[in-house]
Amino acid sequence: MHWIFLAIAIVFEIAFALGTNATRGFTRLWPSVLTLLAAAGGIFTLGLALRTLDVGVGYTVWTGIGSVGTVTLGALVYKERITPAKVASFAAIIAGVVLLKLAAGQ
């Protein structure tokens, strides 16, 4: 169940990051409200996942996969460019998350 909570937390993390851009410095009401709700949801569900997961594994997976998802969706939603260096960085993040998970035995 902890991996399900972590997956939900990652979705909230991506929504928070993308939403922060949409708030235009928290000057737009509804994007700001949704962004703050996403932040709260992400922290709450991360906390549920960390009841069982090691904090090092849970937090690293949350931020790592959240970062990859944010850059990927940022390219789709905000037309941001994905460069070869970004792709190499994605690969390094994903490899690091997999190795950390394997090393922790979770």
Automatic annotation (TrEMBL):
InterPro entries, sorted: EmrE-like, Small_drug/metabolite_transptr, Small_multidrug_res
**How is it placed in the membrane, per its record?**
Multi-pass membrane protein
- Coarse class of the primary localization is membrane
Per UniProt, the keywords (alphabetical) are: Cell membrane, Membrane, Transmembrane, Transmembrane helix, Transport
Q: Which parts pass through the membrane?
A: 29-50, 57-78, 84-104
Subcellular locations according to the entry: Cell membrane
PANTHER family (alphabetical):
GUANIDINIUM EXPORTER, SMR FAMILY PROTON-DEPENDENT DRUG EFFLUX TRANSPORTER SUGE
Task: Return the similarity comment.
Answer: Belongs to the drug/metabolite transporter (DMT) superfamily. Small multidrug resistance (SMR) (TC 2.A.7.1) family.
Q: Could you identify this protein by its name?
A: DMT family transporter
From which source organism is this entry? Actinomadura yumaensis
